[in-house]
Write a structure and sequence with these properties.
The protein is α+β, with helices and mostly antiparallel strands and 174 residues long. The chain contains two helices and nine strands. The chain has an eight-stranded antiparallel barrel.
Length: 174
């Protein structure tokens, strides 16, 4: 047998064997790949997914404090802004963070928010808490210490005092 024939037969066998192994490995991974497609979920499943996503960085769900997770709406009526902001409270480790989720104007039109961190709750026992609240005033960001007092499981009051300017915001579960 000529050397060239032996070479081509060897190469053909190598290509054939490696092709079969690639095909076998591709077939075994095909079920694990979702290509970015998500199955549609009904509203009950969506709430479960949201709770799972919100507590994905936690080790255990604490019934006494973690009920604060979720969407909360705050209504504002000032000369600068009349409407509402929906915040999303998530837990990371032992702290709770509130991110802007949606803006609503007084006519009911909604706009998706940029997801800026607005509130960090550093301590919370289920009834009272303390944290840092961030707000814009005259195009400047200000960080102030705040207190949280639960009214009921669907409402809490956030209060702060900043150089003589004090305010109390009512956060209602969305």
């Amino acid at each position: 047998m000529k050397n060239s024939t032996l070479l081509f037969r060897s190469l053909t066998i190598i290509v054939f064997v490696s092709g079969i192994t690639h095909l076998a490995s591709y077939a075994s991974q095909k079920e694990a790949v979702n290509y970015g497609y998500k199955e549609p979920v009904d509203s009950h499943q969506k709430q479960e997914l949201t709770a799972d996503e919100a507590s994905e960085n936690t080790t255990d769900y604490n019934l006494e404090t973690d009920y604060i997770l979720g969407k909360w709406k705050v209504t504002y009526n000032s000369k600068d802004f009349k409407g509402a902001v929906v915040y999303s409270i998530k837990k990371k480790g032992e702290t709770f963070n509130a991110y802007t989720h949606q803006y609503l104007d007084e006519k009911g039109y909604a706009e998706k928010a940029e997801g800026a961190k607005t509130l960090t709750i550093t301590s919370f026992d289920g009834y009272k808490g303390k944290g840092v609240y961030v707000f814009d005033y005259k195009n400047e960001k200000h960080q102030v210490d705040c207190q949280i007092d639960m009214v009921d499981e669907n409402t809490f009051k956030l209060s702060y005092d900043y150089y003589g300017y004090s305010d109390v915001e009512t956060w209602k579960r969305q």
